[in-house]
Amino acid sequence: MADLVAVWEVALSDGVHKIEFEHGTTSGKRVVYVDGKEAIRKEWMFKLVGKETFTVGAAKTKATINIDAVSGFAYEYTLDIDGKSLKKYMENRSKTTNTWVLSLDGMECRVVLEKDTMDVWCNGKKMETAGEFVEDGTETHFSVGDHNCCIKAVSSGKRKEGIIHTLIVDDREIPEAVE
Asked: Which residue ranges traverse the bilayer (predicted)?
């Protein structure tokens, strides 16, 4: 990995993925690794600028590394996820998902709620859920091991805030994680 020029971490519903990019500016080599596994390898590329497109995660999310010349033999590497810059994608994602990180039975669990579909993910696996309407909103029930989990959705009463989602595990509220 002598030609490693960029490393990104991308938080998706099924987990945080590490993307590494090698760019050999003398050999023209381009190698993309996703979570340590080689996704793309190209040797002897005579054009040193361009794009490399691949997929990330269980949902096969489209990712593109853009290689641009800055000046002389200096290059800039940017990552796009689903056609948006990584920064824009993560900003948008914070509006469409809630994430909680907690420890259960000595193991770290990352629970993600996709607000548009109400899908719940735990450590990369889509969970079986049961939804029900309750007096003040909805509850989405699921289990992690022997633990009863519930995501409560309650109106904030304020238009700008919208719906507040709260994760409750074994009758205790879990604070939301910031990614």
From this structure: none
